[in-house]
Structure formats: structure tokens, C-alpha cells
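Obj: model holo form, ligand = zinc ion.
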Amino acid sequence: MENEPTYQAMQAVAPGRLEFVRKLVRDPGPGEVRIRVEACGVCHSDAATVEGALPIDWPRVPGHEAVGRIDAVGAHVQGWVIGQRVGVGFLGGSCGHCEFCREGDLVNCRNQEFTGVHRDGGYAEILIARASGLMPTPDDLSSVNAAPLLCAGLTTFSALRKSPAKPGDLVAVLGIGGLGHLGVQYARHMGFKVAAIARGAEKAELAKKLGAHYYIDSAAGSSADALQALGGAKVILITASAGKTVADTFKGLRPGGVSLLVGASPEPIEVSGFDLIFGSRKLEGALTGDPETGDETLRFSALSGVSAIIETMPLEKAADAYAKMMAGKARFRIVLTMD
Ligand SMILES: [Zn+2]
Ligand SMILES: [Zn+2]
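Output (holo C-alpha cells):
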């Protein structure tokens, strides 16, 4: 082992336990590339790995907002070259042949692995990824700035882009955290009338700075009434993960409106059949986005200047970064750097 090349990684070894280790560098297999990671965002979904909420084959390296340069290309990989800067998100790459892939629904590919869950992720200097999940990083985005856009960015951008809202429509963003602070910016730059909803008055200033036209303090009264006073929302982008909050805002939708859930939570959401039927309202979930929408996310962000508010920490501090994020103290995205 002494002469074999190794790399540093932070891996989860048991529920709640991260360990800094050296691992052996391996060659990419067929359809895979090897990436020298330069930056990786710390996402709340990393908890699914670290806390073992999803079935994990320990040890496992978390991290699904990784950006770096390809340094080896496996067999049967076309269109990707050594030296190219690429990003890897939560969806590890579609198979291309299952019924969902054949329908063009790559997000729901039956044979897709989740980065940092089924295979090692980006809390590491080296990452092996399926080529079908890669997203090229535009030159005008730094690796640190691009990283959070691969999950938090892609998730909110994709949900808004596919939503029925048109320029000028009222779009509400519930929650101003890692996802929400990007959601507000995208909504503004897509030309919507934007209402940000969060608890307490202290987030009002930040919400306006991010581009919200209105701020609704959910602790001060009914958010649904406040949205109806503005004409009712065409879309409510739910980035907070509480079932009760989702239910509370649902009546703030205008007829034909949709509540889009992107903040994952096991909590049930109670909405009444009357509120669904009278007004033809919808409650929908959206799982991140496909690589093509990832390309658009990166390009749109570079074009419009949308960017996460970032704090960087070195890879060795990944356990501290994770703990800080879990404690709700990240403002607003921690990005690990490897140099
Ligand atoms: Zn994520
Ligand atoms: Zn497939």
C-alpha cells in the first residue's frame, strides 16, 4: 500500500460518525470518470447518509454537490475529456435503457444511484462518477460557487422552471435557508412577483436583498391570508421541511395553483379535499433535476448573477461543517474545499 496512490476523504462509518481517512485511488470503470474534486457543498440531505436514514453500505463518503476536473476516463465514455471541469449532483447518472429513461424522465431512472448514498460522494479529493450524470461547469463560475448550484440550485431552479408560473405571476418561496435563499433569487430573475415566507421579522431584510418583493412573517399571522391579499400564489415553492407549514400555506394558492415540495421530510401533510377540489389546486413533489436542467441552472446562474451565500471550510473540517449545517447555523451554504 505504501507505494500506491491514495487520497483523503471524510467518510461516515456508523450512524452519526464521520472519520477522516486515506483511501486507495482506483481507475474509473466502464462508463465512469475519475474526478479530482475542488469543492463540495454540504447539503441537508447528506444526513440521509451520515445518520443512516437511507440504507447505507458503510463506510460511505457523503457529498453530492461536487465540482472538480476529470483526471481519468473509463471505457465507453464519450464526450468527456481529461482536464474538463465538471459537476456531480445527487442523481448519479441514468442508465439510458429503462422505461423511464426511454420516456425521457431521467430523474426517475430505475437504475440510478444516488451520489454519496449508493456510491462514494464528494467529501473527498477523488470521486468516481458515472459519465451520464455529469454537468460541465461554465468557465465564469468558480468551483466553490458552482458546487451549491448542483443540488440546492438545481432543485429550486428546476422546480420553478417546470412550474406553471409565468412572468408577473405571484410565486411564494417558503423558507429562507440553503434552498430557499437560492429559490428567491431564481424566482426574481425569472420575472415572477416574489413573496418570501419565513418565521420572524429578522429575515425580512435578507429576503428583500435576495430579490423578494414581499416578505411574510409566518409567526405574525396567517401566511395563506397574506398571500390571498396579494391575489393568491400561482406557485408556492416549499423549501422548509415541516408538514404543518406546508398545510398552513396551501390555502394561499390561487385557483390552478400548485404547492411544490422540494424540502424532504417524513412528516405527513394535511390538506383538505375541499381546498384541492374547489380551485383545482395541486400538491406536488419534485426530486432535484436532470443533467440538462443542471446545465441550464449553471448557465442561468452565471448569466443572472444568482449565487449562494457561501462559507468555505477545508475538507479536514468536514465533520465540523456537517455539524454546523445540522445545527441550522450554516449561513447559508458551507462548501468544502480541497487544495
Ligand atoms: Zn442536496
Ligand atoms: Zn434508466
